[in-house]
Amino acid sequence: MRISKTTISMLAAGFFVLASASSCSSIKQMTEKITKKKAPAKTEQPAVVTESENETDDVRDIRRPGGDRMASTMPIRGAVIVNLDSVQNQLNGEWIVMTVNGQEVTGDDDRPYINIDSKEQRFYCSNGCNLLNGAVVVDGPGKVKFTGVMSTMKACPDARFEQAINLALDATESFSIETVDQASTLTLRNTQGNTVMTLRRRDMSYINGAWQVVKIDGKTVDNPDVKLVIDLPEERIHGNTGCNILNGKIFLDPDKTGDVQFQQIITTRMACPDNQWETRLLVALESAEHASLSTLNGKPVVVLSDSNNHDVMVLSSIPMSEME
Fold first, then answer.
1. Which DSSP state fits 80?
2. What pTM was estimated for this model as a whole?
3. pLDDT single digits (tens) 98-137
4. Which domains, ranges and CATH numbers included, belong to the chain?
5. How far apart are CA 193 and CA 215, in angstroms?
6. Cα 121–chain centre separation
7. From the CB of residue 140, how many other CB atoms can be counted at a distance below 10 Å?
């Protein structure tokens, strides 16, 4: 059967119309996709995620539009990124492990702890044997994960909590913080909402710094040279007895709020004609077990008390330059 030129022309025209319609539909879809991807620029834009040449699939840099860096690189899960600024003060600092999976954790020098550096979005940890570090990832309010964990490989025969702490860190999905007096309790929970670990952070920063000793055992100190420096980061104390220079160590009991002890205190052995406060000062420091905030003549002071809650020393803050 022969097909006329007229029929061929009509078929060609039909195919052209269909192709044009299909093409227009595809172009419309592509235009809609491009429009969705490239929204008009705004005056103020939120942080965006950009890739750098050296990053892996799990690492991104958070930058402002234009390339200014907002935060250091951080591991992320999926496509969710939450700025840690809102929880920095909550999670930041050193937390002493109190319980893991319901078991009470004990120890002094080898006490397990987690130190969270929210600014760098990292954590550093001791499980009672090995040291661990990794990334802190916050997925939303009350949501936290410890990822990319690396550990030393020391073998410890008496590390009772090592495995339990490692498993608890891996299982953590959420957290809550409760603060009472100068102590905060951090509770870590798994996906089911069960508590896997509790930790305590002691806020003893109020005793850190340089101090004028204004009272010892209730008596006003009339020697302006009797001064102390309490250095919490270094866990050291040094100062002047009014005659000799003293140095010693500071111990903070992780299981007691406001607990502080001054240990291994040594002094120079210079003889001074007016030395009435030295012995009293040393005895008061050795008996001190608790520090609290108070006021004296309308000014804030720190009061050191003994195990019987008897005030043994009152300290008034002074500039560090006065210790020179």
1. B
2. 0.57
3. 999 999 998 766 889 999 988 888 999 999 999 999 999 8
4. 84-202 (2.40.128.270), 205-323 (2.40.128.270)
5. 50
6. 9
7. 9
